[in-house]
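The instructor's notes for this session suggest beginning with a concrete chain rather than abstract definitions. Hand out the sequence below and ask the class to guess, before any prediction is shown, which regions might be ordered.
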Amino acid sequence: MDYYEAIRERHSVRKYLDRPIEAEKIEKIQQLIDECNRDSGLHIQLVTNEPLAFSTGLFKYGAFSGVRNYLAFVAPKKGSHKEAIGYYGQKIVLLMQMLGLNSCWVALTFKNIKNAYKLREGEELKLVVACGYGTTNGVQHPQKKGLEDLYRDERTQRGLTLPDWFLRGMEAAMLAPTSLNQQKFLFTLHDGIPSSNNSTVIYKVSAKAKFDLFGYAPYDLGIVKCNFELAAGKEHFEWV
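After discussion, reveal the predicted structure:
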């Protein structure tokens, strides 16, 4: 399974089997976590065999059960890190899918078990991703918006068609998990410029989060940008 297949196969799963994650899979996940932490300045951690975070009966939405493993997204209290958490977190989520694991992004319906992960000075836990072997592989949520609602093409007036790579990226962005499945994001395809040797055109792409009442849209933006980038191919465009 490659990243594009993982994007298509990965769905939110809330019920998990009592089956530990194998050591060799934990090692591969940890390698990517270390890489993401170096690139982002985040302090992402994999918590295993910890059943308390999802054992509380206070939260009814989501109906989680059997969760013993999760990614803890720890970041500095100061500054804006939501988009980075979504972007790098989705990379890890997709790797787990490729390893045969299931997952679910969780912002509220968990209990903060403070001794399950490490905090450096000035850091706090932002959210988690439940992970492990699901009782099912989940199902794709119905799309609330059409593809045309999620992008703009600044070249349309010149009668230009969308490049295949952009369409592939947008299809992957549509499959990304977002808070309450709201898809509060908008991509824009800008004019391209010739590469240094004039053999290809490098396009400019921007993506913005729309306002949402609960403030989760920046996390979602990072997730959808990760999906888009992996499916479209970074060789075709630059973020602006």
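Then share the key points. The radius of gyration is 19 Å. The chain has two domains: 3-132, 147-239.
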